[in-house]
Amino acid sequence: CSAAQVECRRAPDGGEPEVSDNIFAQVLFYSRNLAVPARRKVDDPQVLAGKRLFAQANCVACHVPAFTTGSDASEPELANQRIRPYSDLLLHD
């Protein structure tokens, strides 16, 4: 937890180590290979209105609409992929 994450710092600690190296490796592999959900109803008027509101409210300043994965991905299939997570990736270190 970072110093800014007050609730996280107050949460109970699971001890050392919280999980075995094997379990950690399996969770890491799973999360690295979990796909971003497919875009749905991209031409729906309601979806387009939401997209405009998202931009007008300047949500895009933190929640980037599109992102290209790095070329040095742990799995070759994950390298240089264009995804649209609308995520605040800078906050997720």
Can you give a write-up of this model?
The chain has 93 residues and is mostly helical. The protein has a domain of 54 residues. The chain is built from three helices and two strands. The protein has a two-stranded antiparallel sheet. The chain starts with 5 loop residues before the first helix and ends in a 10-residue tail after the last strand. One of its GO terms (molecular function) is metal ion binding.
Tell me the layout of helices and strands:
Layout: H1 6-10, H2 21-33, H3 45-56, E1 67-68, E2 82-83
Antiparallel strand pairs: 1-2
General form? extended
SSE string: HHHEE
Ends: how far apart?
Answer: 10 Å
User: What's the rounded overall pLDDT mean?
Assistant: 84
In total, the number of strands is 2
Report Rg: 18 Å
Count of DSSP-assigned helices? 3
**Major pleated sheet:** 2 strands, antiparallel
Q: Give the percentage of residues in beta strands.
A: under 5%
Query: What structural class should be given to the helix and strand makeup?
Result: mainly alpha
Strand order in the sheet with the most strands: 1-2
Poorly predicted regions? none
In helices, the fraction of residues equals 25-40%
GO molecular function: electron transfer activity; heme binding; metal ion binding
Keywords: Heme, Iron, Metal-binding
Domain Cytochrome c: 45-93
Organism: Mycobacterium paraseoulense
Keywords:
Cyt_c-like_dom_sf; 93 residues; electron transfer activity; single chain; extended; mainly alpha; two-stranded antiparallel ribbon; Cyt_c-like_dom; 2 strands; heme
